Amino acid sequence: MPETLNGRKRINEYLKAQKISYSQLATLYGMNRQDVADYLTGRKQTPAATRFIIALIKAFGLSYEGK
After folding, report:
1. Closest to 26 in 3D by CA, of 13, 14, 40
2. pLDDT tens readout for residues 24-37
3. What pLDDT, on the 0 to 100 scale, is given for residue 65?
4. Cα dihedral value 33, 27, 46, 19, nearest 10
5. Rg of the chain (C-alpha set)
6. Which of 63, 62, 67 has the alpha carbon at shortest distance from 18?
7. Does the pLDDT of residue 1 top 90, yes or no?
8. Quick one: 4 exposed, middle or buried, by C-beta within 10 A (0-12, 13-18, 19+)?
């Protein structure tokens, strides 16, 4: 499974800058808040978490290459 640390970091920075909460993101994607939080903090590192992170990177137009 690919490492998602850089992607999670970029997403969390974006969410903070845009003032988007995990709850708002969960509502938007039809998920529960705890799963979103677990995925974006790295507590759950599953294939579903990786797919969600990739989807967010694409949706937000973030770079996922090294900084």
Report:
1. 40
2. 999 999 999 999 99
3. 65
4. -70
5. 11
6. 62
7. no
8. buried
- Separation CA 67–CA 19 (nearest Å): 22
Q: Which two tokens stand for residue 41?
A: 């903090």
Find where tokens 């992170």 sit.
53
> Please, are residues 53 and 4 in contact by the beta-carbon 8 Å criterion?
yes
pTM: 0.88
**What is the C-alpha to C-alpha distance for residues 39 and 51, in angstroms, rounded to an integer?**
10
Q: How far is CA 62 from CA 17, 27, 31, 34, 53, in A?
A: 13, 21, 21, 23, 11
